[in-house]
Every structure is written in C-alpha cells, then in structure tokens.
Design brief:
- 40% of the residues lie in helices and 20% in strands.
- It is an alpha/beta fold.
- It has a single domain, classed as Glutaredoxin, CATH 3.40.30.
- Strands 2-1-5-4-3-6-7 form a seven-stranded mixed sheet.
C-alpha cells in the first residue's frame, strides 16, 4: 500500500470512530427528580429501542407529544420493549417545581432534568420538542425537532422497523 492510500484509510477509520462517538449519548450529567446525578451515557434499554425526548414545562407541543405517547405507551412497551426517557430543559430556577409538575401528569416515563443545558448543547438541541430514537446499542438512528398531532404514529412505525432490524 502506498503512503497516500494508507493516509486516506487511516483518515476514514478516524472519521468513522468520530462519527460513531457522536452518534451515542454523551457522558453529560443530568439529574433525576430526586436530585440524584446520572450520566446520560449510562441511560440504557436492554429490551429494545429508547426514545429520548427533550421538553420543557412551558412548551405546549412538548406536552402534547408526551401526553399523546402516554396514551399508547403501555402498548408500545409490550409490543417493542421501547423505553421513553423525558429530559426537561427547564432551568435551575424551575427545578424545584418539576417533580410536582411531572407527578400531575399521567406519564410512565423516566424523567430527568438538564438544568445547566450541558446535555442539550452536546446533542445540538436548539428547540424543543426534540426527539431522538436510539437502537438497542444506544446509537441514535433517528431524530426530529417538531411535533404535530399524529407524529407519534410515525415515531412508532420507526420503532417497529428498528425492532424488526430494518
């Protein structure tokens, strides 16, 4: 192999590794509703795909999306093993209100707070709702940055295809 081919090959290997690393949840710290710190990179779902939904208490489309999924979430879990993790981007001033807000919802989700926005920035989340779909290996395979009624059905189709290995 001549030198230029080796350089190109090594560059491609480096680029592939870089893209792979950016395609997973970063090791940024978020907090659960009790204030316990958790690394986002440690969020897993061994039984199937995982949805990461960035949202805020003031975001009406976010609440519509999370409530629409709540209505069908038990069926989704039974059929595909999917897990939804909701990550609030509300700031530290609103952190004390988040547990009571979430308890008032009919959500069977894990909910975390990204009060400093570290995870949001690391994942290039600009606006909410911002929804990611991860495969069983924890790799991001799909994302969308808006919500309109019915989008949850499109998300579920993607989950089903992912579960079937398509």
């Amino acid at each position: 192999m001549n030198l230029s081919i080796k350089i190109i090959f090594l560059s491609l290997l480096f680029l592939a590794g870089t893209l792979q690393a950016q395609n997973a949840l970063p090791a940024k710290t978020i907090k659960d509703l009790k204030g316990k710190s958790v690394k986002a990179s440690e969020l897993k779902n061994e039984s199937g795909p995982m949805i990461i939904s960035f949202w805020a208490t003031w975001c009406k489309p976010c609440l519509k999306e999370l409530n629409a999924i709540a209505d069908v979430y038990d069926d989704w879990k039974d059929e595909t093993g999917v897990k939804l993790v909701a990550i609030s981007i509300d700031d530290a001033r609103a952190a004390h209100k988040l547990p009571s807000f979430v308890n008032g919802q009919d959500w069977d989700y894990e909910v975390y707070l990204d009060e400093n926005g570290d995870l949001k920035r690391a994942m290039n989340v600009v606006n909410v709702p911002h929804t990611f779909l991860l495969n069983e290996k924890g790799e991001i395979v799909y994302q969308r940055t808006i919500y309109a009624p019915g989008d949850e059905e499109l998300l579920y189709e993607k989950i089903q295809k992912l579960k079937k290995g398509e």
